[in-house]
Each structure stands twice: as C-alpha cells, then as structure tokens.
C-alpha cells in the first residue's frame, strides 16, 4: 500500500529512539508533503513527494492523503477492558456526592465488578471485551495493555487472563496482559490480608506462569487497598516468574507506590494524580515511565497529574485511557490526548509523543510501534483533512480519524 500527498507524516523519529524524556517530548518530527510505503504489514519506506522514486509512484493501489495527516496508532498502555457489566448506577451516586472511596466502602467499586464477573462465562466476557476493543481500534488505538483484577479468586483471575489471551489471538494488534489480582481485597479476605496475598503468591502466580498468561504484574498500591509492604511482597514474588511491574500508584493519595515501583524497576508507575516533590525527584532521569490517565481525573473529578513537573524533571511521560467500568468508562485515546493538552498543559507534540512512542515503551513495544520508522509495524491512521497537527487535540470530543490501517491493511472492524 502506498499513501501519497500526505500533508504531515507524524512521528518520524529515528528508529533507535524508543522512548522520550523531559524536553525531548516536545520534539515530534513531522515530514510535510510526504509519501509512505507499506509492505508485508510493515513500514517499508517513506520520503518527500518531491523526491518520490518513479518506480514507487506508479504502484497500482495508492491512497491520496491530500490535506490529511498520517499518525502512528495510539498505544494505550493501561486498560481494564475485560469486565462483565458497566456501573452506571455508581455514576449517579457520584453525581449525588459520593466519592470513589465511599462507593468502594459500600461494596460498590471493584468488588461490585468482581461479583458480576464471577457469574459471567469466558465466552460472554470475550464478546463484551471484543466490542470495546473494536471501538478503541476505530478510535485509532493500535496496541493495548489489558489487566485482570475483577476476578479476585484464582479461578476468576485465570478466567480473565484467558479472555485476554483470546483477544490476543483474535485481534490484529499487539496486546499485553497484566495480572492485577492485587486490585482489592475480596470480601472473604477482608480481615485476612495475609491469606489473600498468600493465595496470590502460592497459588495464582505459579498457575499464571505455567500457562504463560501474563506479561506484567500490577498492584493497586493505595490507602485502603494494598500497602507498600504488601506491594513489595507481591512484586518480589512475581519477579521470580519474570513478571515486571506496571503499578497503580498515587491515584487517591501519596501512597509510596512510585518509590516501591521504582525499587522493583517497574516498566511504569501509573495514575500519579497525587504527586509531591519526592515523586518528581524519584522519577527524574529514571527509566520507569510515568503513565498519566487524565480521563480518570476528569471522570472522578480528582486532581490532574503534574505532567509539567514530571517533564521539567526529565521524566518519561506516557498517557493512556485506563478504560474500566468504575473510574474511566471510555477507551477514546483522542479524548485523552485532548485532555492531556487542556488539563495536563502538555503541548500537542508532547501529548502525541506520550500517546504513541512512550505509550509503546510502557508496553515494551517501542521497537515495533509508536513512531513512523522503516521496519516498524504498519499500524497507523489517516485523519480527515486538517489545517494543522494541533487541530486534532483542539477539536476535542470529535474524531478526526478517517482511515485506520493495521498491519498494512485498512481495518473496517
Ligand atoms: N484504581 C484502580 N483501578 C481502576 C479502577 C477500577 C474500578 O473502579 O473498577 C483505575 O485504574 O482507576
Ligand atoms: Zn487502572
């Protein structure tokens, strides 16, 4: 497939650039008036229209992208899209003034999702998650991470991870699976935290490893959920099975999750709605990526993460949706990019880099995804005609995506 007359070919980073930190994030190389050649599912070559070789120009099937931009697909590195049912009743409770913590304490929240998930079959969960994932792909997502964490029993956590495995087989995009059994204490272990942690470590982890069901380990390190010591214990046990951490940290309070994540060489520490100077200095010049989830802040009406502080301290920042039934019932990366600009005060270039190359890095996929480079996967999207790059986040809530291309082919869902 050949795409010609591209107004802006976005994210033409040198191939060896596999993540961006601090000031580098404002640099989003765009090739103006370009062509792009895709072959065997990969990016074969690209260049300026003024220099296009005539052998390429005469290829039979080409897309004319006059006035349009071509982006590398969004890389959504934090989602919980395997769930049994939405929780719109909690949406109404929130409008009436209840907080996320109030709802969780009243048996809602994660435990509510776990109850519903226990009753759903693997097939039902697969069908429901497939619909969500197909919607996300139409909105430009071309790689995704998906967590367990609504099982909270050995059987149901395995059921969730098997659903993710089926999604990996069924969808034409890279998918990473994360074990998040430490998402909440199930009712049966409310007074026996040790017992639940032992169940994760002694029973669940060996089974997950045996079936090779997870790529990463996650813990909700938060007041009222998992403490620093408990997080430490789970991450140490998971390391023995080669599972690297991507953890939930500082969503509702300064939890110590960032420091414990960094201690365990986490791929990413996610959320960070609560950030103090210690968090900033911990992540400064660090390899661990700060993954910010602005649509969670928007939906829960909680503080937005300190993206500027992180960028000024030379941290690596990614953005993701956090799509889940409780805190973020949306998988729209275009909205996340807009919110990153509007609420995190990220420049469009920074937000787009955070949603592509750094998002890919937060899934260890940036050698094949997240930028336009020869040999990378041909997962990308073509916009409608747009006056400029900034028009995409500016026109929030509206999709500017016209054509989605996965593995070098047009995706029609
Ligand atoms: N905070 C933990 N997990 C999810 C919310 C889960 C839920 O409310 O169902 C999150 O990332 O926001
Ligand atoms: Zn989450």
Automatic annotation (TrEMBL):
- Sum up the protein's function in the record's words: Catalyzes the hydrolytic cleavage of the carbon-nitrogen bond in imidazolone-5-propanoate to yield N-formimidoyl-L-glutamate. It is the third step in the universal histidine degradation pathway.
Instruction: Show the Pfam families listed in the entry.
Output: Amidohydro_1 (PF01979)
Query: Which species is this UniProt entry from?
Result: Pedobacter frigiditerrae
Instruction: Tell me how the cofactor is bound.
Output: Binds 1 zinc or iron ion per subunit.
Which residues bind Zn(2+) per the record? 78, 80, 248, 322
Q: Where is the Amidohydrolase-related domain?
A: 69-410
HAMAP family attached here? HutI
Which metal ions or organic cofactors does this protein require, according to UniProt?
Answer: Zn(2+); Fe(3+)
Subcellular localization, per the record? Cytoplasm
Q: Cite a single GO BP annotation.
A: L-histidine catabolic process to glutamate and formamide
Q: Which residues form a coiled coil?
A: none
The UniProt annotation places Fe(3+) binding at 78, 80, 248, 322
What family does this belong to?
Belongs to the metallo-dependent hydrolases superfamily. HutI family.
Which top EC class is given?
hydrolase
> Which residues does the record give as N-formimidoyl-L-glutamate binding sites?
150, 324, 326
Q: Which GO terms describe its molecular function?
A: imidazolonepropionase activity; iron ion binding; zinc ion binding
Q: What is its main location?
A: cytoplasm
Q: Where does 4-imidazolone-5-propanoate bind?
A: 87, 150, 183, 251, 327
- Cellular component terms per the entry's GO annotation: cytoplasm
Under the heading SUPFAM superfamilies, the entry gives: Composite domain of metallo-dependent hydrolases, Metallo-dependent hydrolases
The alphabetized UniProt keywords are: Cytoplasm, Histidine metabolism, Hydrolase, Iron, Metal-binding, Zinc
Protein name, per record? Imidazolonepropionase
According to UniProt, the reaction catalysed is: 4-imidazolone-5-propanoate + H2O = N-formimidoyl-L-glutamate
| EC number, UniProt record | 3.5.2.7
Q: In which pathway does it act?
A: Amino-acid degradation; L-histidine degradation into L-glutamate; N-formimidoyl-L-glutamate from L-histidine: step 3/3
